[in-house]
Amino acid sequence: MDHRGASFEPSVTREGNTFIARAVVLTEAGDLASLGALGVFANEESAFPVRCATAFIDGDELPLPPNKIKIAAPQK
Q1: Is residue 68 part of a domain?
Q2: Which residues contact 30 (CB under 8 A, 6 or more apart)?
Q3: How far apart (Å, rounded) are the C-alpha atoms in residues 6 and 20?
Q4: pLDDT confidence of 74, banded at 50, 70, 90?
Q5: Mean pLDDT (whole number) for 55-67
Q6: Range of the domain at 18
Q7: Considering the entire predicted model, what is its pTM?
Q8: What does the alpha-carbon distance between residue 72 and residue 76 come to, in Å, rounded to a whole number?
Q9: Does residue 46 fall inside a structural domain?
């Protein structure tokens, strides 16, 4: 995909019962940036990695993921 002269590749991969969104950006100057794991989602149809990549290219703050997972502390 392209945005403002930069190219990016969004992806969503399955990990267990969830999906992890990621994006890689190739800037106009030829620099490559991986945005890493951007969030956890219930399905692979998320547009979130696209939103993150375009925000990164525009120099904006990355949006917060819509879901947060809390891992319960072991009970003593």
Answers
A1: no
A2: none
A3: 23
A4: low
A5: 90
A6: 2-58
A7: 0.79
A8: 12
A9: yes
